[in-house]
Every structure is written in structure tokens, then in C-alpha cells.
User: Fold DUF2231 domain-containing protein from Aphanothece hegewaldii CCALA 016.
Amino acid sequence: MNTELIDQLTPSVGANGLPYHIPIHPNLVHLTLGLFIIGIAFDIAGALFPFQRPIFKFLALTATRSNFFDVGWYNVLASAIITFFTVASGFYEMLLATPSPDVVSAWGLHALDTMVWHGVGGVLLLTLIVGMAIWRGFQRYAWRKERGRQVQWSYLIAGLLILFLMFLQGTLGAHLGGEFGVHVTADYLLRSGEDPNSILK
Ligand code: HEM
Assistant:
């Protein structure tokens, strides 16, 4: 974004280009990703439970099938809630981003393309995660309440496809930080000709 506008927005931005020391978005993304991954993984484990039963028996583990589905449901629900904050913080930090304009990422994209794809991808993922949580809720509390396998195979397949989209989204995000130096303190100091070690002194 235009640096003059950024100055108007936040007269007190620090060395990382943000009005606070540690970017919020990169912390929240790991909750979005982690909670969703665990949610789908535990539902897969619950769905395949009959095949795993002899292993649990051999290991003397008292695993109960419904507990796997509890973990699956609550993690996807938590991911849906937290992702609103992930996306909101992403928009705010994108607004204050001043990426290196000449750099091309490992995927051959410039900063602007990467930001646009990452922004659109983020909104798409939020929609999909919320949709998955609603779908999961219907399976748990209505459609499959009495069934041993609480989740439909189509739900698990959709979850795996979303995990692939998350890989693309996460890599674009990593390019923003790692290759374009967005909100990376050392990167900003080097670009402005300062010594990153100076802030430690
Ligand atoms: C589900 C949604 C999203 C996921 C999973 C996600 C994931 C990521 C990841 C993994 C990073 C790299 C973090 C790091 O370097 O440690 C990142 C960085 C970034 N993302 Fe996202 N992102 C999402 C949505 C968005 C949205 C909607 C925007 C803005 C429109 C956005 C803007 C940014 C920015 C500006 C960065 C650079 C670091 C920063 O300034 O915070 N993200 N994202």
C-alpha cells in the first residue's frame, strides 16, 4: 500500500511496519490450520476405527470411537471460529504491507499477485471451513446421531481437498513473509539501510 496512506493510518508504526511488535496474523494461521488438520485427522481415525480396534487392543489402549468424533467436531468448530480473526488480522496487516516490489517468489509471482491470491484464498478458505463446520454439526446432531460412523465419506474427502488448498494458501503466506519480507523486522531494517543488530543494543 502507498506509504503516505500508511503514515496517515498509523503514525506510530514500528520497525516491522506494524503498530505492535509481533504480527498477529502469523500466530493465528497456525490455529486455523492446526485445528482443522486435527479435526479431519481424528474424524478419519474415527471412521476407520473398526480396522484399528485390534491395534488398540494389542497396545491395551482403551480407545472409544465416539471420542475420536468428539475431537473431530470440536476442532473443526474451533477452526471455524478462530478463522474469522485470522482473516480479519490478515486484512489489517495486508493493508499495512510494503513488500519488496522487485522480488519474484519461488512460484514466479510478484508481491501484488501473491497478496491478491492469498487474500482471495483466505476468504474462500473461511467460507469452506465455516461450511464444513455446519455440515459436521448436522451430521453430529441430526443426520447421523444414532450411527456408529458419525461422518460421511464425502465429508472426509472434502476435508482432504481443503487441506490441499490450505497447503497452497500457507505457501503463498510464507512467501509474503519469507520472500517479500512483509512485516519482518530484520528485513525492514535492512531495506532502510539500518543494522538489524542495532535494535538489540
Ligand atoms: C484461512 C486463511 C488464511 C491462512 C491459513 C493464512 C496463512 C498464512 C501463512 C501460513 C502466512 C505465513 C506466516 C509466517 O510467515 O509465519 C501468512 C502470512 C500473511 N497473510 Fe495469511 N492466511 C490466511 C488469510 C489471509 C487473508 C484473508 C489475508 C489478507 C487479505 C492475509 C494476509 C497475510 C499477510 C499480509 C501475511 C504476511 C505476514 C503478516 O503481515 O501477517 N492472510 N498467511
The chain has one domain: 25-96+104-196.
